Amino acid sequence: MKLTENFTINELTYSVTAEANNIDNRPSVEVIANLKALCENVLQPLRNHLGCPIIITSGYRCPQLNKKIGGKPNSQHLKGQAADFVVPQKNLKDVYLYIKSFLSYDQLLFESDKKQKWIHVSFCQNGHNRHQAVDNYPA
Ligand SMILES: [Zn+2]
Predict the structure, then answer these.
(1) Cα of 5 from ligand 1 centre, angstroms
(2) Left if phi > 0, otherwise alpha if psi is -120 to 50, otherwise beta: which for 87?
(3) Spatial distance between the Cα atoms of 119 and 114, rounded to a whole number of angstroms
(4) 14 C-alpha to center of ligand 1: Å?
(5) What domains, with CATH codes, occur in the chain?
(6) How far is the CA of 86 from the centre of ligand 1 (A)?
(7) Which of 48, 59, 84, 120 could disulfide-link 12, Cβ–Cβ 3.0 to 4.6 Å?
(8) Residue 45 C-alpha to ligand 1 middle, in angstroms?
(9) Contact criterion met (CB below 8 Å) for 132 and 99
(10) Cα–Cα distance between 124 and 106 in angstroms, integer?
(11) 100 Cα: distance to centroid of ligand 1 (angstroms)
């Protein structure tokens, strides 16, 4: 099922870890509404600007999955309000800076560990978006 033109529920809920551990990561109606708002307000406008694929590495996480991968207990991934992604065809820092300057978001993090870099972005459909950005967030 499509959330917006280029994003599906499957992309925003799929998890290798969930599959490997038999964790049921199916979203509730409320979570789906939050994922849709995230796509409509941030991910799809970004996709339209970039004109190339955005690869979601982590979207919605049920409590069991969030715990399994060591996510923070209050993570916005638990509500379907956040997604982590990479854009293989673009400079990721440029992508981050574009979002920071031109799009609406709640929290925007340029995250990295020793092996990789990715962007974490969240959006709250209730309108209380903090517009908080951190350029170098250690995972
Ligand atoms: Zn994240």
Answers:
(1) 22
(2) beta
(3) 15
(4) 14
(5) 2-138 (3.30.1380.10)
(6) 11
(7) 59
(8) 19
(9) no
(10) 6
(11) 16
